Structure to design on (466 residues):
């Protein structure tokens, strides 16, 4: 069900916490780990904290509210969250009014929550992603009732509207369009921690984008775990088209897509609005072996994947393609791995995000017996990186001599105010010097040097390439 936060109990709790906190100079500090969905969720947490009377700070030592928004996709991400939590061991002893919360995907794992409750006494509460709107209630219980709570209400997968994000940037914005995932790829914990797919109403998404564009936002990223399986009164291709046709000077991106939903119509829409829809497609491959893809439950094979790539390149000639690959999935033979390298050589992605397989309890793959030795995983990873770094460097070298439209980010913090970076429409980072640039403006940059991950150039007055 979709409902507004104003119609929930949360509103009452916001008022109650506010009456305790307001005027006392209390600060909240939110730490975000993981994906863009978490970045977007953290913006809503900051909104709720501000509504309750907290000021938002980047300085944890000032804060009497600490929120760690966690990721569960790999073990490493969980260890990182626990180490951050460890830093706040004395927080509640030092300040009896302090609230320390762990939210996000880790909070949706029952066993993890149990461990957090018993071993991390500094923790006031946990809250899983589908329950974020209950943040004010949990704060109230911790702050006023002095009760620790460990919510696991994973049965309800509603959408709560009406929490205007406290956006980190005033020119780039995330707009969530759908939540959750139904795919159950055998290695992935996301469907268990973020629940079933549910889409926002298209009118709410379009209105939010229109408002952002009217207030000067230059880049909108439509977000979802499985963004292109968006489904309400329209499908994702139509939603993207509706956003692309809002008047204004902006670019729209989207992530993350599943190849099964990379429809012809979506590709056509991308081709139809080359000035508005960023020529970039993040299309996770995961493996180049059909046997491994089957065991991953990815529902496509390499030939289907390659045909999508071919269609994308034919329809959007300037398109940049990026992907995710998992190395060392259970049962991955040397031949399977070579098949993956082969697909990387065939496609020549601009960038590959590669991950060593990490078993996640509760997933199907975690029960598979033919695990790959850690040393072999590491060795395969090094071979993959070596191959892809060469390809990425060659792909980036193709930009040399071209003039690219770049959305400028705020100046680098390295002390040199004239040193800027930004991103091309294809989403590649570019470094350049500029006398009078502002974060959030589009500029033209002539590219004169390329590395595997970045481009380097100089500001130009002339128009970008056709
Ligand atoms: N181990 C390693 N990588 C994983 N990913 C998802 N689950 C796992 C796992 N258990 C990767 C996939 C996905 C990306 C966001 O993280 O490649 O696309
Ligand atoms: Fe995980 Fe697969 Fe869903 Fe992506 S599509 S979130 S990899 S289950």
């Amino acid at each position: 069900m979709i409902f507004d936060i104003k119609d929930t109990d949360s509103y009452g709790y916001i008022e109650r916490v506010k009456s305790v906190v307001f005027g006392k100079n209390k600060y909240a500090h939110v730490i975000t780990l993981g994906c863009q969905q978490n970045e977007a969720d953290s913006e809503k947490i900051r909104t709720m904290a501000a509504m309750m009377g907290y000021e938002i700070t980047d300085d944890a030592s000032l804060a009497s509210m600490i929120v760690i928004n966690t990721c569960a996709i790999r073990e490493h991400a969980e260890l990182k969250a626990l180490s951050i939590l460890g830093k706040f061991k004395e927080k509640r002893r030092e300040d009896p009014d302090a609230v320390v919360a762990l939210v996000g995907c880790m909070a949706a794992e029952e066993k993890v929550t149990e461990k957090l409750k018993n071993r991390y006494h500094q923790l006031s509460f946990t809250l899983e992603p589908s329950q974020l709107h209950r943040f004010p209630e949990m704060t109230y219980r911790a702050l006023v009732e002095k009760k620790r709570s460990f919510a696991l209400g994973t049965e309800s997968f509603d959408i709560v509207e009406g929490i205007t994000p406290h956006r980190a940037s005033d020119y780039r914005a995330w707009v969530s369009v759908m939540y959750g995932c139904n795919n159950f790829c055998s290695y992935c914990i996301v469907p268990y921690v973020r629940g079933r797919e549910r889409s926002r109403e298209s009118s709410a998404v379009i209105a939010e984008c229109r408002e952002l564009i009217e207030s000067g936002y230059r880049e909108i990223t439509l977000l979802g775990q499985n963004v292109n399986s968006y489904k309400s009164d329209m499908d994702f291709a139509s939603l993207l088209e509706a956003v692309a046709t809002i008047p204004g000077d902006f670019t729209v991106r989207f992530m993350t897509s599943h190849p099964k939903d990379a429809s012809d119509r979506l590709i056509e829409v991308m081709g139809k609005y080359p000035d508005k829809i960023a020529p970039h497609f993040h299309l996770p491959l995961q493996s180049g072996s059909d046997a491994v893809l089957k065991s991953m439950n990815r529902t496509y094979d390499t030939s289907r994947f390659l045909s999508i790539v071919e269609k994308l390149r034919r329809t959007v000639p300037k398109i940049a393609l990026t992907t995710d690959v998992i190395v060392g999935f259970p049962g991955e033979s040397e031949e399977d791995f070579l098949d993956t390298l082969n697909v990387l050589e065939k496609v020549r992605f601009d960038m590959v995000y590669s991950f060593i397989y990490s078993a996640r309890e509760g997933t199907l793959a975690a029960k598979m017996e033919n695990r790959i030795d850690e040393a072999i995983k590491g060795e395969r990873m090094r071979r993959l990186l070596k191959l892809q770094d060469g390809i990425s460097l060659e792909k980036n070298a193709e930009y040399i001599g071209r003039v690219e439209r770049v959305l400028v980010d705020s100046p680098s913090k390295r002390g040199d105010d004239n040193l800027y970076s930004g991103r091309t429409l294809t989403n590649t980072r570019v470094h350049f010097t500029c006398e009078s640039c502002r974060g959030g403006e589009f500029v033209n940059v002539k590219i004169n040097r390329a590395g595997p991950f970045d481009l380097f150039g100089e500001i130009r007055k002339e128009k970008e390439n056709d």
Observations:
- The mean pLDDT is 94.
- The two ends are 46 Å apart (CA to CA).
- The first helix runs from residue 10 to 21.
